[in-house]
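Input sequence (115 aa), recorded before submission:
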Amino acid sequence: QVQLVESGGGLAQAGGSLRLSCVASGITFSRYAMAWYRQAPGKQRDMVAGISREGYTNYADSVKGRFTISRDNAKSTVDLQLNSLKPEDTAVYYCHGVGTFLNYWGQGTQVTVSS
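Predicted structure, C-alpha cell format:
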C-alpha cells in the first residue's frame, strides 16, 4: 500500500521556524514529483512548494524566500523548511506525490503560528 506520512508540525511563534518531513512508502519515490500543500479552515487547499523529479523547485509567492523544499530520494523523503513564520501560515500541511498515472496525499500535519 502507498503511504505518505507527514511529521514535524506544531506550534511556533511569528518569526520562528519549523521543519516538516514526509516519508513515502509503496512507490518508486524518484519517479514522483513532490509538493507541499496547505489548507486553512474555510479556505482552498493550495500548493505552497513543489519539487520535480530532477530537483527543480517552485514556490507560491506568499512563501518565496521563507520556505525551502528539498527531497532525498535515498530516504524517500521530502522536507519543507519553514522560516520567518507568520500567523497566516497557520494551516494543515499536506504532502503530495504526483506520478505519471496516480497521485497520493498524506494525512496532513498541523502548523500553528501565534502572533
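Checked by second reader. The radius of gyration is 13 Å.
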